[in-house]
Amino acid sequence: MSLLTVGTVAFDAIETPFGKTDKIIGGSATYGSLAASYFTDQVKLVAVVGDDFPKADIRLLESHGIDTEGLQIKAGEKSFFWSGKYHIDMNSRDTLVTELNVLESFDPVIPDSYQGVEYLMLGNLSPQVQKAVIERLDQKPKLIMMDTMNFWMDIAMKELKETIALVDVLSINDAEARQLSGEYSLVKAAKKIMEMGPKTLIIKKGENGALLFNGDSVFFAPALPLEEVFDPTGAGDTFAGGFIGYLAKTDDTSFNNMKKAVIYGSALASFAVEKFGTERIIKISDDEMEDRIHRFIDLVQLEGKF
Ligand code: AMP
């Protein structure tokens, strides 16, 4: 099934306890579309960059089968830039710089060839743009998933809630779930957030895994304990791309299949953190993917009677 990914295609500068990068490519749609490309060859991208964005990196996305017809390139403008610094636990970070640049006036255009898309991933982006994309699709997709972050809660909470009301699945981290709901308990937070619209909520907890809420049901997927965590940037977007990519591949949006999708999303995210930026997720072999899924299954499988 086809999947439309919307979000940022960006430059990032990252500092972790293990090193520092100057401008490398990142962005929610970059990570999300690359992750999804491991499950479906029908990933379509809507995003905007300036003419400072390297053509080679656009070709890299295309080499993963990602359709870039919906990627606008603005002459004379600068790409979105984000810079962050991770704390020693690597689970929390400070945003040092957010330069919206081309994002400030981004008007998403949906190419005709994208109409009729079955799955929609609204990656972290301004909620007004996320909403415009939903409104500009002629047909409602089978499933709309949305990711966001504290930045948009701080500056556009009203617009954010309007967009959240339109989606089927919301994925946010634990601190964002607390900020959005005003509740400390994640169970209470989940209830409040699901009342805002989404039937399904995913709360990401970094190295502590992810919770999948749907009505009164909850599923927990651990994160794989890794020997080396180099750079957590993009782990959330990679998770989201892997999750919805698996749903699009299987074309099954049942809760049971979403549980499997959480495992696939977590597996993809576990690759993302092993190297800086997108370096690790641009080349995952079939054997590596299969091996990682089995490591997840082994991690949670219990034998014998209780
Ligand atoms: P994650 O680590 O999954 O939260 O995603 C990190 C990515 O999000 C980076 O590659 C950034 O370019 C991108 N990003 C950071 N801030 C924003 C923002 N306010 N809106 C959209 N994308 C952002």
What can be said about this structure in brief?
This protein has helices at 28-36, 55-63, 127-136, 150-164, 174-181, 186-195, 235-250, 255-272, 286-300; strands at 3-6, 10-16, 19-20, 24-26, 43-50, 67-74, 81-86, 93-99, 119-122, 143-147, 169-173, 200-204, 210-214, 217-221. By secondary structure, the chain is of the alpha/beta class. The protein has one domain (3-300): Ribokinase (UDP-N-acetylmuramoyl-L-alanine:D-glutamate ligase), CATH 3.40.1190.20.
What order do the helices and strands come in, and which of them pair?
Elements: E1 3-6, E2 10-16, E3 19-20, E4 24-26, H1 28-36, E5 43-50, H2 55-63, E6 67-74, E7 81-86, E8 93-99, E9 119-122, H3 127-136, E10 143-147, H4 150-164, E11 169-173, H5 174-181, H6 186-195, E12 200-204, E13 210-214, E14 217-221, H7 235-250, H8 255-272, H9 286-300
Parallel strand pairs: 1-5, 1-9, 2-7, 5-6, 9-10, 10-11, 11-12
Antiparallel strand pairs: 2-3, 2-4, 7-8, 12-13, 13-14
Helix pairs in contact: 1-7, 3-4, 5-6, 7-8, 8-9
The structure holds adenosine monophosphate.
Adenosine monophosphate binds at residues 8, 10, 12, 26-28, 82, 98, 124-125, 149, 151, 233-237.
List keywords for this structure.
306 residues, UDP-N-acetylmuramoyl-L-alanine:D-glutamate ligase, nine-stranded mixed beta sheet, five-stranded mixed beta sheet, 24% strand, binds adenosine monophosphate
